[in-house]
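Lab notebook page, bench 4
Experiment: in silico fold of construct C2
Operator: M.H.
Input chain length: 162 residues
Purpose: comparison with the prior construct
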Amino acid sequence: MRFTRLPATASAALLAACTAPGPAPIPATVGTPGAQPAVVAGARPSRSHAGPARSWDEYKLRVAQRIMEASPGETFEGVLPDPLQSIPVLQIQLNRDGSLRNVTVLRVPRQSPQTVDMAIRAIRRAAPFEPVGHLPRPWQFSETFLYNDDLKFQLRTLVEAH
């Protein structure tokens, strides 16, 4: 999978969109604490790794790769459009075993707000993730979904990694 860097104007727009004040976070509960993860039909395992992630940055990269792999018909490759169609931002909270504890919406886009539900479904499809008990608490991080005009996404974590 190949990702390209953001053009300067897209980077500025993305940064402004992610830091702009928005509505209060909306909890999108996906499970109860300690609950066992549901197995989703069709979800493919991510690439095997040589052990647990050594940092949150490495963990986030693995999660982003897994989300992309679990959603092949909903993603796109290549240059990001300027402007992007929609940019929902979600906070992913995990249990020690890597199962989803909660997904909270941090930013609801004004245009194409349905992408929030699409992004939550993509996260659920990819879960459970690798255990996080060895990483510092809190076991949570945010991910930004970058949607094009066809409502297909790339993940900010992967775009910035390349």
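Observations: Helices lie at 8-19, 56-70, 115-126, 156-161. The mean pLDDT is 80.
Next step: discuss at group meeting.
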